[in-house]
From TrEMBL:
The protein's name in its UniProt record: Putative MFS transporter, AGZA family, xanthine/uracil permease
Transmembrane regions listed in the UniProt entry: 24-48, 68-88, 95-113, 119-138, 150-170, 190-207, 214-234, 254-280, 348-367, 398-426, 446-467
Any Pfam family matching the protein: Xan_ur_permease
Homology family: Belongs to the nucleobase:cation symporter-2 (NCS2) (TC 2.A.40) family. Azg-like subfamily.
Domain of life: Archaea
Species whose genome carries this gene: Halobaculum gomorrense
Assigned keywords, A-Z: Cell membrane, Membrane, Transmembrane, Transmembrane helix, Transport
InterPro entries noted in UniProt: Azg-like, Azg-like_bact_archaea, NCS2
PANTHER family: XANTHINE/URACIL PERMEASE C887.17-RELATED (PTHR43337), XANTHINE_URACIL PERMEASE C887.17-RELATED (PTHR43337:SF1)
Compartment(s) where it occurs, according to its Swiss-Prot or TrEMBL record: Cell membrane
Length: 468
């Protein structure tokens, strides 16, 4: 029996109405649409002393740390996607998720002051909890505990959060003592000018449905910045990435760092971080799986994905492995829809994606060569796409609109996904009771709301002077 026939039998090509060529093309399409994470994840997670919070390894240069995180990103994405391919047999790609990497760097490490090693420990713990709940089949219970308006609003809130981070890195939006934020010097700042050109080129490619438009946009913007600098049109050093960085594959300073992060943690702050990682990971993955499965025709008559626990388990294992190696939470990518639209229906699509992530390890130095502003344009593009989730919210029902609105608005205004989720959860049962609809709440809603009220009191009253 030839390899092609073995693959056809293992992945049920005949039953799913597909073939090897279709699956390979679909896998390539999915990889190209989500491969931007190889540049973006390191640029978000890695910190710059005195400028940007994130992973900072003593004695290791920024460019080398970027490459370490790029290697870990690729390995985590490959492991999770290969599990999705060989165990769940679904055409879904996985990688460290946008939003949670920003929460890791800007909120957990930055605002809360939690060491990055402890943040990685929270990712590992969240992954283990996810594995346990998936193994015992507690998916329905978890879904019922969280208010629906908050679940529907999280994606939009994260979209706004990502957008403001991206615009800030591109110098299109800057801080202002009078108005908090304002428009940057977009007609005189070379970085802002190049960023705007690159952003609109990317928007155009994305709108035309060009496969890999975000990656093309990132590389185009980085190249344009290099041309401007080399041509002497602007002296701005930030226009260039690190073009001389040597390939680095030693990830030992990152791998296993979560173990030291478990020492001397503050239980309250650590619990909030774990909770937020779990909440966003679980519902982002579940929502993405259902959304992409709808396109593929995988849903049953009740609108559910049969055997959803298998792809959820792939996500959970990928998150745990990623945290152990040194990256933030792994999730299923909505970009998987690109491969599904190309005809991908089996785990063979995911197998191709996973293999391509491994092959990409040869191009790790590119991660350091892409400047920060170029990689962050992906945050603006994806952030805007995520805003479309808002249409699912029943805005004509104030008991839904208020907690959903609080979830969405608090995230960018406090620079924290966690605070947005907490605000929505606290608000939900209160407005339900005020509207005379207490019967629509559950004990779990009240328990979560009470827990977050306690957290906000402790966190903002000065009782908790340090998160570590």
């Amino acid at each position: 029996m030839g390899l092609q026939q073995q693959l056809a039998e293992y992945f049920d090509f005949e039953e799913l109405g597909t073939d090897l060529r279709t699956e390979v093309v679909a896998g390539l399409s999915t990889f190209l649409t989500m491969s931007y994470i190889v540049f973006v994840n390191p640029s978000i997670l890695v910190g710059i002393e005195g400028e940007k919070p994130g992973i900072i390894i003593d004695g290791v240069p920024y460019a080398q740390t970027i490459q370490m995180v790029a290697v870990v990103t690729l390995i985590a994405a490959a492991v999770a996607t290969l599990i999705m391919a060989l165990y769940a047999k679904r055409p879904f790609g996985q990688a460290p998720g946008l939003g949670l990497n920003a929460f890791f760097a800007f909120t957990v490490v930055g605002a809360l002051g939690v060491p990055w090693q402890t943040a990685l420990a929270a990712v590992v713990v969240e992954g283990l909890i996810f594995i346990l709940l998936t193994a015992v089949g507690a998916r329905e219970y978890v879904i019922n505990v969280f208010p629906t308006p908050v679940k529907l609003a999280v994606g939009t809130g994260i979209g706004l959060f990502l957008t403001i981070i991206g615009l800030d890195a591109m110098r299109i939006v800057v801080d202002d003592p009078a108005t908090l934020v304002t428009l940057g010097p977009v007609a005189s700042d070379p970085v802002a000018i190049v960023s705007i050109v690159g952003l609109f080129v990317t928007f155009g490619l994305y709108a035309r449905g060009v496969t890999g438009s975000v990656v093309i946009g990132i590389l185009f913007t980085a190249l344009l910045g290099g041309v401007v600098k080399v041509a002497g049109l602007a002296p701005e050093a930030a226009l260039l990435g690190n073009l001389s960085a040597q390939a680095t594959y030693d990830i030992s300073p990152l791998a296993g760092a979560f173990v030291t992060g478990l020492q001397d943690v503050d239980a309250l702050a650590f619990s909030l971080v774990v909770f937020t990682f779990f909440f966003v990971d679980f519902f982002d993955t579940a929502g993405t799986l259902v959304g992409v499965s709808q396109v593929a025709g995988f849903l049953d008559e009740e609108g559910d994905l049969p055997d959803i626990d298998k792809p959820l388990m792939a996500d959970a294992v990928g998150t745990t492995v990623g945290g152990m190696l040194g990256t933030s939470t792994v999730t299923t990518y909505i970009e998987s829809a690109a491969g599904v639209e190309e005809g991908g229906r089996s785990g063979m699509t995911a197998l191709v994606v996973g293999i391509l992530f491994l092959v990409s390890l040869a191009f790790v130095p590119l991660a350091a060569a892409v400047p920060l502003y170029a990689s962050h344009l992906a945050l603006v593009v994806i952030g805007i796409v995520m805003l479309r989730n808002v249409v699912e919210i029943a805005w004509d029902d104030l008991t839904v609109a208020i907690p959903a609105g609080m979830t969405i608005l608090i995230m960018p205004f406090t620079y924290s996904i966690a605070y947005g989720i907490a605000a929505g959860i606290v608000t939900y049962p209160l407005v339900k009771v005020a509207a005379g609809r207490r019967d629509e709440t559950r004990p779990g809603h009240w328990a979560l709301a009470a827990a977050f009220v306690v957290y906000f009191v402790v966190r903002t009253s000065g009782i908790l002077t340090s998160a570590v």
